[in-house]
Amino acid sequence: MTVAFRLARQQDIAAVAGLLADDVLGQGREGADLAPYLAAFEAMRNDPGNLLIVGEEEGAIVACYQITFLVGLSQKGARRAQIEGVRVAQHRRGRGIGTMLIADAERRARNAGCRLMQFTTNKARHDAHRFYDRMGFTPSHIGYKKTLRGACPPR
Amino acid sequence: MTVAFRLARQQDIAAVAGLLADDVLGQGREGADLAPYLAAFEAMRNDPGNLLIVGEEEGAIVACYQITFLVGLSQKGARRAQIEGVRVAQHRRGRGIGTMLIADAERRARNAGCRLMQFTTNKARHDAHRFYDRMGFTPSHIGYKKTLRGACPPR
């Protein structure tokens, strides 16, 4: 099996939106209209520090993740890589694609000069926790979220 | 008491580095050399979506935080605001500065079109957890971190 991880292209966005929705937590909060996903992708393409990556196997998109390189002052100005929206297609799980995905993210993070990698995962994703523990991540933090009402339209 | 929250300037960086170091977790991982903090601040200044904010009271820097506006596909392309490096000077605590800081961050997040606010906090910061619960944040996630060895020099 060979999964190639590469930058997403516009024609991949329908598949990525499908992966995001095909998820026990995602199904309630994603939508069928592609327009907002395409708009978000266009905004990401203007930012070289915020990448959407897809895993392709025999012409099919079987995985995706977002990686953002964050500059900040903490820890002597350590650059950190943050991962969001990690998904592996349900019917392709259990074959090591998640492990390859994390390895790809770590390689991209090191190449971008990041000394830390971080992400949050919902407390309900117990299988994911065991996977991330095995991959050498430490569950040292609590991830807080808040929905903001009355946000202005993005410019 | 009036604390004004504003964008950090180069001459504030020594005070911000001091706030980051004057912390039970920060003291072991921050440094006395200002150069890496100034370099990180310069890199942030080139990114309008990644802001260092300071709270100033009677000419003194008494608080700081970093806010980053993240574009991504998840949740119908929801823009999210992420907070890092929240600090209030030890001798100014218990006077509502943290509440003002979060209100300032939420205002900036809404203005930037963000529908979500998120951050992680170390599991050891029990006082902080109670504060964030009161401020309406939900501790729904686990925050995983990993130190990356062999990162390339940032470009």
From TrEMBL, chains A, B:
* GO MF: acyltransferase activity, transferring groups other than amino-acyl groups
Q: Which domain of life is it from?
A: Bacteria
What the entry lists under SUPFAM superfamilies is as follows: Acyl-CoA N-acyltransferases (Nat) (SSF55729)
Residue ranges of every copy of the N-acetyltransferase domain listed in the record: 3-155
InterPro entries noted in UniProt: Acyl_CoA_acyltransferase, Bact_Acetyltransf, GNAT_dom
Give the UniProt keywords, A-Z: Acyltransferase, Transferase
Q: Which CDD domains does the UniProt record give? A: NAT_SF
What is this protein's record name?
GNAT family N-acetyltransferase
Q: What is the originating organism of this protein?
A: Paracoccus subflavus
Organism placement in taxonomy:
Bacteria, Pseudomonadati, Pseudomonadota, Alphaproteobacteria, Rhodobacterales
